[in-house]
Amino acid sequence: MVTIKDVALRAGVSLITVSRVVNTPDKVAKETRGKVEAAMKELGYVRNVAAGNLVYKRSGIICVYASRNFSRLDPFLSHFLLGVSEALGERSYSLSLVHEVNESQFCDGYIFSGYNEAEEAFGQCLSLGKPVALFGQYDDAGVDCIDTDNVLSARKAVRYLVENGHRRIAVVLNTTGADYVKQRFEGYRMALQEGGIEYDSSLVVEVDNSTEGGREASEVLLGRGRFTACFLITDTMAVGFVLGLQAKGLSVPDDISVVGFDGLGHQNLTIPKITTVVQPVYEISKALAESMLGRVVDGRKDRVSKLVEAELSVAGSVRNMNTEKEDIS
Amino acid sequence: MVTIKDVALRAGVSLITVSRVVNTPDKVAKETRGKVEAAMKELGYVRNVAAGNLVYKRSGIICVYASRNFSRLDPFLSHFLLGVSEALGERSYSLSLVHEVNESQFCDGYIFSGYNEAEEAFGQCLSLGKPVALFGQYDDAGVDCIDTDNVLSARKAVRYLVENGHRRIAVVLNTTGADYVKQRFEGYRMALQEGGIEYDSSLVVEVDNSTEGGREASEVLLGRGRFTACFLITDTMAVGFVLGLQAKGLSVPDDISVVGFDGLGHQNLTIPKITTVVQPVYEISKALAESMLGRVVDGRKDRVSKLVEAELSVAGSVRNMNTEKEDIS
DNA sequence: TTACCATATGTTAACGTTAACATCGGTTTT
DNA sequence: AAAACCGATGTTAACGTTAACATATGGTAA
């Protein structure tokens, strides 16, 4: 293992000069810096992060909490971890994926991929006094929060249906009881109101958050009456919904238009692909990790609390009721 | 921050005794150990892993390589990372997710989630001289390898079709050029042979590894002639294949039976769910991480090289051609 | 000229842990 | 009864880095 001592010897300077070249290069004369950098390259010097962390009194580790049952299902976790690790890597931090919060975890802070699945762990974490960052919304001065603006994004999704001439728009919720369910439902209602469409509770269904649940929803809604479009608050359900319709011989989008929510990949599994709003999970988790490092490394004190709008991704699952009239004329 | 010094003071012993209680408890008298443990609990002692790593001359970090384009798509990465992190956590290691191999990465070894997507990085890694572990197969004494036994597992999948009375069995390959394609194809041919079924190259199709590719394959095969079952070497394609059949008004499994491969979640997105063979990704990646730690922490020298058979997961996509005759009789 | 300042570099002591060796009773061996 | 040994504990010096202070050199102001 090559140390700054070896480099210093080779370059004919002292330890600390090498350390300065690594950490505060502009405090070293250009000529000296050149010599040191050459020596580092020749010897293949790699900074010992552990030694640095010891001095800085940091662990160099951020824990990412993922609830055990949730974590295996979804492409969500991949996106989330890629974002976190991207940010951590830039500052020589590494991560530890945990399923429970433990007093004796050696880490500088916790990042949560959600609140609802993790209430208990989240509480423990707060009482530990370490910084916490959350993909979600939570009122506590010590918690950095970034979340998708579910209300606005759902409103955007449903508005897209309205703009395409749909008036009878169903909505499928799920039974997880998570905050985003209420929020996306609220967005749905706002979009209806803006479009001058009366809310009809017979067009609201609540099912399990799964493909099977989505299929079930299609049967319930088809039994209840006339609608031309449906907004499903997760793509997982939307996939099942589309399949359910197709199994009944109905066409998407010719008979029924469909819009989903999430955009993590499932929207591309059906034919046609599903129009959805895409949560920027990677970007959010990266930003969360950055704000975590801001606290831990830079000693930032102010709280991050932000909502990000999801982007509409137009695919082939929505029929434009307006153009057709134009086509005829 | 509570250190062993604080604990030692509280317990009335020396530093090293506390260290021994942490690392080699049986070398400390029972009574003393009790006192120390009590002191640790009272003070909320957490071992400083960084300090330990410094002494042990380790980084405490394992890099997990994930190719950039591949990584966002799949539930694979979630499963893989969960396995790795489970093993690492048990020995106070943390992980760093990287997209390129870098001489100046501070880590003790690299774990690769695949070879074909990462040939270049893999080569760099070998020349670095650090231990490497691979989900896949590679002939090099320095590389620990665990892989799904693709031949045997594909054979098992196709044998299941044969056992269910199918004789005209198509196969859908993909154009990735990865090793597993040839292997799974070989398993297909073995199962045919064992079943006394002649190989028919008109029942072989090669398409893009996507839902769309699977749909395409269904059209090609339907155009070519009679078959009662199809083996798709990835579930992603199998999903599209099922959808393509259903779009043509065909029933799975009544008209065509389908078996996939992977078992990472996609098999549950269609109705009916797809019968598939499940790669134990979590278990394999965990074992890879364990063998990595065996090298790095315990100094193990012998090479791990193992093939693991995937488990058949029976769902509703295969029709039993035998029972029906029995039913009639 | 002397005193002062800025810039560049060096010396020393920490960070928290563990390995290697040292010590000290008490027991076994001869 | 002396020698050797063993189990439990302690002392010291490392691991590689950085902060804080110290020194040296050259330039500028009085």
Any low-confidence stretches of chain A, pLDDT <50, length ≥5? none
Distance between the termini of chain A: 79 Å
Class derived from helix and strand content of chain A: alpha/beta
| Shape designation of chain A | elongated
This entry's quaternary arrangement is: homodimer
Largest interface: A-B, 57 and 58 residues
Written description of the protein model:
The structure is a homodimer of 329-residue chains. Chain A has 329 residues and is of the alpha/beta class. Chain A has three domains: 4-47, lambda repressor-like DNA-binding domains (434 Repressor (Amino-terminal Domain), Orthogonal Bundle); 61-148 and 281-308, Rossmann fold, CATH 3.40.50.2300; 150-279 and 313-322, Rossmann fold (3-Layer(aba) Sandwich). The first copy, chain A, contains 13 helices and twelve strands. The first copy, chain A, has helices at residues 4-11, 15-23, 30-43, 49-56, 68-71, 76-89, 119-128, 150-163, 179-194, 211-224, 235-247, 281-296, 321-328, and strands at residues 61-65, 94-98, 109-112, 132-135, 143-148, 169-174, 204-207, 229-232, 257-262, 275-278, 305-308, 311-313. In chain A, the strands form two sheets. A six-stranded parallel β-sheet of chain A has the order 2-1-3-4-5-11, with helices on both faces. The longest helix of chain A is centred in the middle third of the chain and has 16 residues, at 179-194. Chain A starts with a helix and ends with a helix. The model of chain A has no long low-confidence stretch (mean pLDDT 93). The first copy, chain A, binds a DNA duplex (30 and 30 nucleotides) through helix 2 and helix 4.
